[in-house]
Amino acid sequence: MKFEAVTIKDIAKALGLSTSTVSRALRDSHEISAETKQLVLECAEKLNYRPNPIALSLKEKRSRSIGVVVCEIANTFFSQVINGIESIAYDRGYNVIVSQSRESYEREVIDLQFLASRSVDGVIISLSTETTDLTHIKALHARGMPIVLFDRIHDDIDTHKVIVDNYRGAYDATEHFIKQGFKRIAALAGSEFLSITAERLAGYHDALKAHNISYSKEYVQHCFYGGMVFSEVEEAMNKLLTLKQKPDAVITTSDKLTTGCVKTLKRRGLDIPKDMALIGFSNSDIAELVDPPLTVIRQPAEEMGRAATELLLQLVESKRPVKDFEKRVLTPELLIRGSAIKS
Questions:
Q1: Judging by beta carbons within 10 Å of its beta carbon (0-12, 13-18, 19+), is residue 63 exposed, middle or buried?
Q2: Keywords assigned by UniProt (predicted)?
Q3: Domain of residue 43, CATH code
Q4: Domain for residue 58, yes or no?
């Protein structure tokens, strides 16, 4: 049996009123008496009537919905960002439609096309690892679609952006290793095309330089899909572990790379931190439950989601074109645990 939503006609039929009277009563029109309005509202509540969002969007020229595109909902960082987005959106009367690109440029394009076809009022997006061509985003932006970029951003689009201080996070992690006495510090990073990769590796490089430790290109391994494909992480770690001068510590630049690194070290029977110390960008609560507990650079993910939503709704609800845009930079936190303490 096909579901059919309750309509104004159903209320009118139940009360023996015209549909126009019911419509005006629901709009709180001065033409309708208080008694009739009360009858209509009570009947609407009894029948579980809800206004048709499509009709409302046509009338208000607003759908009261926003779209979100992330690479993977199952990723702890992104799920926390979505929590932050929803906490603001629902309080402001907006619904949230979430899509995931799975690190695919093609899927990202399709996701944005779908959201635009559903007339969302704006989009919050973190770019996929495959996205080097921004034509699809620029086209929507040029047509007036409010867009906010977060985490993985690009400076070619003039709009609000929300990021974490990736440079500082990686710098502090590298410096912690150095102060613990580690000398051969490697980095397991995502795609070279991503803004977060460049920023985190810059922090890593500059911390080494500040402490007069030579930078070695062979100590930096890239995983294009950022840990979503475990075999890619395993191959990168094997390259590090078979070097003549094997690293004694490694920084991983994302949640998936962190867990993939731990999995590889465990499979090879290596001890953390004795055989290799580890610090990872990670928001997973599992980090403090493993043995040893993992030292992590924790990002303020929910705060990032809230900030991105507030900035998006500024664009959506502004009565004038917004020309001044903000790049909001949030501060990560280095949580030191057993995986990065020299034994």
A1: buried
A2: DNA-binding, Transcription, Transcription regulation
A3: 1.10.260.40
A4: no
Instruction: Give the residue from 191, 180, 262 showing the smallest Cα distance to 222.
Output: 191
Helix axes 105-117, 135-142, angle to 10 degrees: 20
Burial class (CB in 10 A: 0-12, 13-18, 19+), 221: buried
Looking at the structure, tell me whether residues 291 and 171 fall in a common domain: yes
- Which tokens is 15 given? 């009360």
Domain that holds residue 129: 63-163+301-330
Q: Which helix (H) or strand (E) holds 284?
A: none
What 3-state DSSP class applies to 250?
A: strand
The domain total for the chain is 3
145 and 198 in a single domain? The answer is no
Other Cβ atoms closer than 10 A to 319: 4
> Is there a single domain that holds both residue 176 and residue 195?
yes
CATH number of the domain encompassing residue 201: 3.40.50.2300
Closest C-alpha to 218, from 238, 202, 240, 196: 240
Does 226 lie in the same domain as 175?
yes
The reply to whether 235 falls in a domain is yes
pTM check: above 0.85:
no
Residue 30 and residue 148 in one domain:
no
CA distance 187 to 193: 16
Name the phi and psi angles at 250, rounded to 5: -145, 140
Q: Cβ–Cβ contacts within 10 Å for residue 315, how many?
A: 19
pLDDT in single tens digits along all 343 residues of the chain: 455 677 888 888 888 989 888 888 887 788 889 889 898 888 888 888 876 655 555 455 567 899 999 999 999 999 999 999 999 999 998 999 999 999 999 999 999 999 998 889 999 999 999 999 999 999 999 999 999 999 999 999 999 999 999 999 999 999 999 999 999 999 999 999 999 999 999 999 999 999 999 999 999 999 999 989 999 999 999 999 999 999 999 999 999 999 999 999 999 999 999 999 999 999 998 899 889 999 999 999 999 999 999 999 999 998 888 889 999 999 999 999 999 998 7
